[in-house]
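I'll show a sample.
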Amino acid sequence: MNEMQLKYGCNPNQKPSRVYVENGELPIEVLNGKPGYINLLDAFNGWQLVKELKKATGLCAATSFKHVSPAGAAVGQPLSDTLKKIYWVDDLGELSPLACAYARARGADRMSSYGDFIALSDICDVSTAKMIQREVSDGIIAPGYEPEALEILKSKRKGTYNIIKIDGNYTPDPIERKQVFGITFEQGRNELDINNALLENIVTDNKEIPEDKKRDLLISLITLKYTQSNSVCYVKDGQAIGIGAGQQSRIHCTRLAGQKADNWWLRQSPQVLGLEFVDSIRRADRDNAIDVYISDEYMDVLAEGEWQKIFKTKPPVFTVDEKKAWLSKNTDVSLGSDAFFPFGDNIERAHKSGVEYIAQPGGSIRDDNVIETCNKYNIAMAFTGIRLFHH
């Protein structure tokens, strides 16, 4: 099969719609469902991301994609009891490495991951399928599926869940094209190999980047390679914890992603772990309630008549001072940027979210200011010399 007809394009009025290859056959097999235009954009970008993560780290990988940018990405590191609880997987028993990877990818920003398209680097196993089964998701792409896992996934969305198998050995042409306004754009594919060699030019006083932090920096850079620019990515312990995508200003990327990283850490605080939800609350409503509770809009869920719909007992306000105290405990965070930081204000914001290691291209006329700000906080920063814009 060298083409697939689609229901419509990005929007229902955009017809006709299809995907096709000019030579050979499509590298995918649709095992269930009828994926749409945006589903396939997410699937193909997500697959490239997890394939590169596995190549760079040697670990299985997963990503949770929404609107052609990752909401989360991670490798298969074991989960602590706290992470199992905040990712709502503490009742699933022993988890496979691949299931741990998806729990991390989905759980980093559960608000954004709602209705995601999933990409897995390895054959989907039963442990991962059971986790996916109860999440709101549009579909999945993987190089294969265990028979029982496939049947579990086929049961989702009343049998319409999108399940795609991709040829793991597929290699695209080195030249890629797209049309905008009837005009064809052509460029060489971004085949840049992201590896430890990009982290050798450490320009700060602190020259020490431990091996596990190099891994985290590689995760950030590979994630950025498939994130709509401008973008930055905060990573900790093998998973993205905050991704800022598609912002026109670099500092706004850093702030957006930093706030997401802060929210991820706040969800692990005793105040949030101690919340007692009513038994009937839906998973999505629980996620939304936590997001509001830790925000400045907390009274939306604590007002009289409202909290009773969500909590068994009314929680105390999570004060600004309490949040600051908890956030100060988040350390050893790594940060990647798809282009240079133009000013030291990005470093100031990153420091507030526990960043101690940075990888960015360098090349700003204010590199001296950025390096000086890193030295102020003993942050180790590598200049990669490469830009990772993605559009």
In short: The chain has three domains: 3-166, 175-266+327-383, 270-317. Residues 3-166 form a domain with the Cytidine Deaminase; domain 2 fold (CATH 3.40.140.20). The CA atoms of residues 79 and 188 lie 39 Å apart.
